[in-house]
Amino acid sequence: MSFKWNTYAGGTFAAPDKHGYSARTNLGTYDIQPVSFSSGKHRGYRLHFINDKGKLAGGLYQEIGMFRSPNAAKSASIKHYNKHLK
Q1: Could you give the residue ranges of the DSSP H alpha helices within 26-69?
Q2: What is the C-alpha end-to-end distance of the chain, expressed in Å?
Q3: Which of 20, 28, 18, 21 is nearest to 4 (CA)?
Q4: Which candidate, 35, 47, 37, 54, places its Cα nearest to that of 75?
Q5: Distance CA 77, CA 65 (A)
Q6: How far apart, in whole angstroms, are the C-alpha atoms of residue 76 and residue 55?
């Protein structure tokens, strides 16, 4: 399983040159957001599953975890999908 990832601006509190990523699946949306410390230094990437199709119990926004890189978060999203939604 592989997802088509879209890139977007990291946001107001993201460190410079850090981007967010999202991938829509037939069962929900995965969202990777860059996270920074209050000092502005990059901390990592937070992965959420947006349960907009109602396929999993636990609410609309489900945090999966923090990761060192976008690629690590993308791998975790595939594992999550295969474990819970396949």
Answers
A1: none
A2: 10
A3: 21
A4: 47
A5: 10
A6: 18
Residues with Cβ < 8 Å from 82, sequence gap 6 or more? 1
φ, ψ dihedrals at 28, nearest 5°: 160, -175
pLDDT value at residue 40:
86
Task: Report residue 35: phi and psi, to 5°.
Answer: -125, 135
Q: Kindly list the domain boundaries of the chain, sorted by start residue.
A: 6-85
**Residue 9 belongs to what H/E stretch?**
strand 6-9
Average pLDDT value for residue range 60-70: 96
- pLDDT greater than 90 at residue 9: no
Provide the sign of the torsion angle of the four alpha carbons 25, 82, 8, 62, taken in this order: positive
User: Is 47:73 a contact under the CB 8 Å cutoff?
Assistant: yes
Which amino acid is present at 41? Answer: K
Distances (CA, A) of 15 to 45, 64, 84: 11, 21, 32
